[in-house]
């Protein structure tokens, strides 16, 4: 073999050994050192995130926000020259930080009450509204309702009534009593409680004003009515006494005149007896106002209210009946009262016509 060919083969063998053995070893060592440096940087970033999460929120808000950003920047810088293993480690660190922040936010939200929560924890009755005050449930009551859950009445003039739609409402105590009495004493007259409540609410009539509509012949008016009757009786008695005295004087004068005339004509004296004539007048009969008459009057007022859907019409009727009771202007024989509107009330048969 020529010498030059032997030299060429030797050079080729050396190059092959360098390329196939030495270069891979150098590359492997370089990769190992790079992986170690990346692991050190990932460990430092994780330690910084843990320190931020453990620090108080009020005093470390700015540093906490900066540290993850710096770590992310370092990770991004490293990832540009690092291997896929380094990139995976950086992504895992970022995901861990995001999960920690999300859990903290959820815990903060869970501790705050909402009105929806309060509707379950403290349900309000009678159309009350659930609200949150200072992270505590409370009820805002409407109308005349009060109490923690709006289940009581604040106004003594009101009473709670149940409507047909499973809701409660307030109604004047006198109105409630009148409806109950009417159902027992006058069953032919149907009073619809839900309609009455609706008419009163539409006109915003308070419980006190509702009770006034049911008031007839209060104590003061009863005393006034009795005093008027006593005055009428006294005047009638005085008139009777005056009439009797006048008739007696007239009879006595006539007797004296006759006696004088007889004396002149004859000498004999005749004894004349004077007669006293008195006129007795029969008192005018009046309609007797009983408790049932007053109860019927209340039912009539409510019937007009629910039929005409008018508080004004029922108030006008109440005032008219009150005036009739005071002046005894109800027909004592028939007990019937006829109004210009065509309404006819019979206080003997307890009937209502003309509505």
In words, what does this structure look like?
With about 350 residues, this protein is mainly alpha-helical. Among the domains are: about 125-155, Ribbon (Laminin), CATH 2.10.25.10; about 220-260 and about 275-280, no CATH class. The chain contains ten helices and nine strands. The strands form four sheets. Strands 7-8-9 form a three-stranded antiparallel sheet, with no helix packed on it. A two-stranded antiparallel sheet has the order 1-2. A hairpin with a 5-residue loop joins strand 3 and strand 4. Helix 1 packs parallel to helix 3 (about 85-110), helix 2 runs antiparallel to helix 3 and helix 5 (about 175-185) crosses helix 9. The N and C termini lie far apart (about 145 Å). The model is unreliable at about 50-110, about 240-250 and about 260-275 (pLDDT under 50).
Largest beta sheet: strand ordering: 7-8-9
Question: Could you give a short account of the major beta sheet?
Answer: 3 strands, antiparallel
Give the rounded overall mean pLDDT.
72
> What value does the Rg take, in angstroms?
54 Å
How many helices? The count is 10
The secondary structure category is: mainly alpha
Helix content: 55-70%
**Straight-line N-to-C gap:** 143 Å
What's this, in brief?
The chain has 355 residues and is mostly helical. It is built from ten helices and nine strands.
Helix-strand layout with pairing:
Elements: H1 3-54, H2 61-81, H3 84-110, H4 115-121, E1 129-133, E2 136-140, E3 145-146, E4 152-153, E5 158-162, E6 168-172, H5 173-185, H6 193-202, H7 207-213, H8 219-265, H9 291-308, H10 311-327, E7 336-338, E8 344-346, E9 351-353
Antiparallel strand pairs: 1-2, 3-4, 5-6, 7-8, 8-9
Helix pairs in contact: 1-2, 1-3, 2-3, 5-9, 9-10
């Amino acid at each position: 073999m020529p010498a030059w060919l032997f030299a060429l083969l030797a050079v080729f063998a050396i190059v092959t050994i360098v390329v196939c053995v030495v270069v891979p070893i150098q590359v492997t060592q370089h990769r190992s050192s790079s992986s170690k440096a990346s692991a050190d940087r990932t460990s430092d970033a994780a330690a910084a995130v843990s320190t931020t999460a453990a620090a108080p929120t009020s005093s470390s808000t700015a540093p906490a926000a900066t540290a993850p950003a710096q770590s992310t920047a370092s990770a991004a810088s490293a990832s540009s020259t690092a291997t896929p293993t380094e990139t995976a480690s950086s992504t895992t660190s970022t995901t861990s930080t995001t999960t920690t922040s999300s859990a903290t936010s959820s815990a903060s939200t869970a501790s705050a009450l909402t009105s929806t929560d309060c509707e379950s924890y403290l349900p309000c009755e009678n159309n009350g509204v659930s609200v949150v005050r200072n992270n505590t449930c409370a009820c805002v009551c409407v109308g005349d309702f009060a109490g923690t859950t709006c289940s009581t009445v604040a106004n003594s003039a009101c009473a709670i009534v149940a409507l047909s739609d499973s809701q409660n409402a307030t109604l004047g105590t006198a109105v409630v009593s009148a409806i109950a009495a009417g159902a027992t004493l006058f069953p032919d007259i149907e009073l619809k409680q839900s309609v009455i409540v609706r008419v009163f609410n539409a006109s915003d009539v308070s419980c006190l004003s509702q009770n006034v509509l049911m008031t007839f012949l209060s104590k003061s008016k009863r005393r006034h009515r009795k005093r008027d009757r006593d005055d009428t009786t006294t005047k009638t008695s005085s008139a009777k006494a005056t009439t009797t005295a006048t008739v007696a004087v007239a009879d006595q004068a006539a007797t004296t005149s006759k006696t004088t005339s007889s004396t002149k004509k004859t000498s004999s004296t005749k004894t004349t007896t004077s007669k006293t004539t008195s006129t007795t007048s029969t008192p005018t009969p009046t309609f007797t106002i009983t408790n049932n008459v007053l109860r019927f009057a209340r039912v009539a007022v409510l019937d007009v209210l629910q039929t005409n859907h008018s508080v004004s019409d029922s108030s006008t009727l109440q005032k008219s009946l009150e005036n009739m009771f005071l002046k005894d202007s109800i027909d004592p024989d028939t007990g019937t009262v006829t109004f210009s509107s065509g309404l006819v009330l019979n206080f003997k048969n307890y009937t209502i016509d003309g509505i």
